[in-house]
Amino acid sequence: DLELIAAQGFDHVRFPIAVEHLVEADGSRLDREFVARIEREIDQLHALGLAVIVDAHPEAEFKHALASSDDAVERFVSMWSNLAARFADSDPASTAFEVLNEPAIGNNARWVEVLNRGLGAIRAAAPEHTIVASGDLYSQLPTLLEMPEPADRNLIYNIHVYDPMALTHQGAHWAPDWAQHTRGLDYPMDLENVSALQAATDDPDAHAALDEYATEGWDRARYESFLAPAVAWAAARGVPLTCNEFGVYKVFAPRAARLRWLADVTSVFVEQGIGWTVWDYAGDFGVATGEGGHRQPDVEVL
Predict the structure, then answer these.
(1) Which residues pair with 157 in a beta bridge?
(2) Deepest of 131, 168, 216, 227, by most Cβ within 10 A of its Cβ?
(3) All residues at 6 or more sequence positions from 102 whose CB lies less than 8 Å from its CB, including other chains
């Protein structure tokens, strides 16, 4: 799998880590076996010439604890002190640290405090490495615009782009119930397609989401205007901007629509100077198909 990723021309991998396995009760030490496994995999990625984003990627329960528990924050910060120290000798050009995937604090001031403490812990152990930061509420673009001036000069700011959910999460089992009624939604927006989906359901939330999709008129030009405020925000602060999650749930989306969406969004990223990491490798948003060890590249997606 790692060789396949490298062979397709990608230059880096975002490496999500279930940090629940790293945070002990007192936060003072790491699970040795789990960390050794992480190190082995990242060493292989580096050997293949791929840079790595070491991404703290817990489940919702862990993130919600950060919102309400100072003890949870202490353990999280201690975890980063230890984890960053394990990778401090890696080449800063090929290893970056992402403080937290999709923060869900619900309080921007508290999130900035947690973020800055995480930054401090990483920076104390790894003074030269780049750190990836984002706004609260799932790294969405609007919360990036609410972030204060950077507390560190070696940061990349990050957004996730799944807008609009009616398109990118159509039929996803973890999405709101109304998303079951947007299966088959086309891209770019086509009024006849939207009307047909609305006629097939009486769910008011689905109707509202589809109305919004039509009103916004999602196409390449809409993504240009959508991303422009984030680009301006980053330029004003002199920091790079990346999008390290974007994609369309492929199970129910029309394949041609998904291909058009990926082409448009990635081209806008490149045009506007935004780095990108597509979500994901071989899951329901994937760029490869098949089972582990026997996967094949999805050539049209690539």
Answers:
(1) 133, 241
(2) 168
(3) 63, 134, 138, 139, 160, 245
- In order of 36, 171, 172, 209, 297, the CA distances from 186 in angstroms are 44, 13, 16, 14, 24
Residue for token digits 């397709």?
Answer: 8
* Backbone phi, psi, residue 229, to 5°: -65, -35
End-to-end CA distance of the chain: 15
Q: The pTM is what?
A: 0.94
Provide the pLDDT for residue 35.
87
Helix ranges restricted to H, the chain: 2-7, 32-47, 60-68, 70-86, 108-125, 136-139, 141-144, 165-168, 191-199, 204-216, 220-237, 255-272
Enter the tokens of residue 68: 């309400």
Distance CA 105, CA 110 (A): 7
Amino acid at 244: N
Of 181, 199, 197, the closest CA to residue 189 belongs to 197
